């Protein structure tokens, strides 16, 4: 039984980031076969959009050093939308050669994080993304643009909204089809979300081209998501089992868990296409692969109700 | 820096339930001196309403078997509102004799929980509460009425809203000044909250006499709270450090942590009077007393930023 809430969209696209954003923050690199199986199980659980991996140099993020192998191993076993992260033109070339069908680039709203994460100023990193987006589009690939540190930065504190908006709008100018607004350290609260969405709307970037990417570091992710849905956003980033965080920001732990999100949307009668028990079994299986429990509250509550996962699950 | 959200109240009363609802669910009974110190530290952190304890028979809940001693030990060190739970007329008489200044009664919206928790039907338990409320008011004490299992029941599943409303309205008829709507197993989502508040409003019970009591079992507590605030509710139950749950419902863990709530309200510029670092230090101190970590996400994120608690804190 579900109880709708006035003003919410009938359908939400869950943008699953576990295989990329989640696994890049695990201490150990998993075998590529396990990653492929993870993606297959997520797709079988109804996730239509799964960010598969990142074409970063292996020396930057060894955990994702097998991007070509993963795409080859998956073959046609891919979700409807299967974006991969690319940090620069070289990464894009690798992704195109590997058969990627959509890419994402990752910008920072703050100078401090740009310096630490991208080793460039905000302006320099944006300038470097322009040809990446252009070449991707020339190759027929849609591009998502991430904006990180939208609501707070561990070094700079509060982030002026117009600074966030400027970065988002540049990415749109370059040709990004979707902008994902990231609360990388999880400090944001619903008023900030509303104010940023309103500002972007006034600047011509409507909620239909925006995704939200909240971290649950301070427990705020679902309340912020609700507010974004009330403002017309229909794409929400989440990570199966709450995998991942941010390797460059010490205090940042906990992507919004996909299970917590889907519990809410199921309760609201908002269609996601996700089979929650199948997703939860997938996350429990992944927790077993990683040897540590999931931080998802809904997953912990659901776990006793699930039958044991089997190797035949997918 | 805070960013307000249109439609929210300027001020929220945090109704702290840690010393009663939290500690009654701990395996071990703490020394009464530690409980008194907990209350003093909560008050020092700015909490104006703290539910102190329960005047239940010691054989029912041994953890709270020292209610008289606690009130005697606290003396004048009490918050502005210092309710105590009373299960029946005997408990009320004990509370009055001990100098309690406000009481609360605890009703169930479902037959299954009434049978298991109160050993009576819903109708029988309500009938038994009528004289309790009457006598309390005759003694000059305001009465809060809890309604548990408002959004789901582990034995019955979904709970019809008119069934919840009927119980709430009976408690108001008896003379309860405030009704706390409890999601005892934490399954509710924002649509249910909106629907119940709208129904109660149509029946004459406005948001100004309603408190919400959410559990974070499925990670939904803060989103549900946000929805309640948008509908005019200004009293929110929470438990320092997320202490407590429901001893009669196996799957129920995790009151909304006061830290997670105050982080959100601080971010929204909603006044609570609570000093978040002082509260967090109190919860870390209590976690040390209990020998287990707190489930509060905000507390975990804040902990590294806090100086060590001292015995001189309060």
TrEMBL record, chains A, B:
Gene3D superfamilies per UniProt: Aldolase class I
Species this chain originates from: Geodermatophilus telluris
Family annotation (NCBIfam families): PRK05692.1
GO biological process: ketone body biosynthetic process; L-leucine catabolic process
Keyword terms of this UniProt record: Lyase, Metal-binding
Residues spanning the membrane: none
Family classification: Belongs to the HMG-CoA lyase family.
Domain Pyruvate carboxyltransferase stretches: 12-280
One Gene Ontology molecular-function label: hydroxymethylglutaryl-CoA lyase activity
Cross-referenced PROSITE patterns: PYR_CT
Name of the protein this chain belongs to: Hydroxymethylglutaryl-CoA lyase
InterPro entries listed in its UniProt record: Aldolase_TIM, HMGL, PYR_CT
């Amino acid at each position: 039984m579900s109880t709708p809430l006035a003003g919410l969209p009938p359908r939400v696209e869950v943008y699953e980031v576990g295989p990329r954003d989640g696994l890049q923050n695990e201490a150990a690199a998993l075998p590529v076969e396990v990653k492929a199986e993870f993606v297959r199980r997520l797709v079988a659980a109804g996730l239509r959009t799964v960010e598969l991996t990142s074409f970063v140099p292996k020396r930057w993020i060894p955990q994702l050093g097998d991007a070509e192998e993963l795409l080859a191993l998956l073959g046609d076993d891919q979700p409807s939308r299967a974006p991969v992260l690319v940090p620069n033109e070289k990464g894009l070339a690798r992704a195109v050669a590997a058969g990627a069908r959509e890419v994402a680039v990752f910008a920072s709203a703050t100078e401090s994080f740009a310096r630490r994460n991208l080793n460039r100023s905000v302006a320099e990193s944006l300038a470097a993304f322009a040809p990446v987006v252009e070449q991707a589009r020339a190759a027929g690939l849609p591009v998502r643009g991430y904006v990180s540190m939208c609501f707070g930065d561990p070094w700079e504190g509060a982030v002026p909204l117009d600074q966030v908006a400027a970065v988002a709008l540049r990415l749109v100018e370059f040709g990004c089809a979707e902008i994902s607004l990231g609360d990388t350290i999880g400090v944001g609260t619903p008023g900030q979300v509303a104010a940023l969405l309103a500002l972007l709307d006034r600047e011509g970037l409507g909620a239909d081209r925006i995704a939200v990417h909240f971290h649950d570091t301070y427990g705020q992710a679902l309340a912020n998501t609700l507010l974004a849905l009330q403002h017309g956003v229909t794409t929400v980033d989440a990570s199966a089992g709450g995998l991942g965080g941010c390797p460059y920001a010490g205090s940042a732990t906990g992507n919004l868990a996909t299970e917590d999100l889907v519990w809410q949307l199921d309760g609201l009668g908002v269609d996601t296409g996700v089979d929650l028990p199948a997703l939860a079994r997938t996350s429990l299986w992944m927790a077993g692969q990683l040897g540590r429990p999931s931080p998802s509250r809904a997953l912990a509550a659901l776990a006793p109700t699930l039958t044991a996962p089997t190797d035949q699950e997918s």
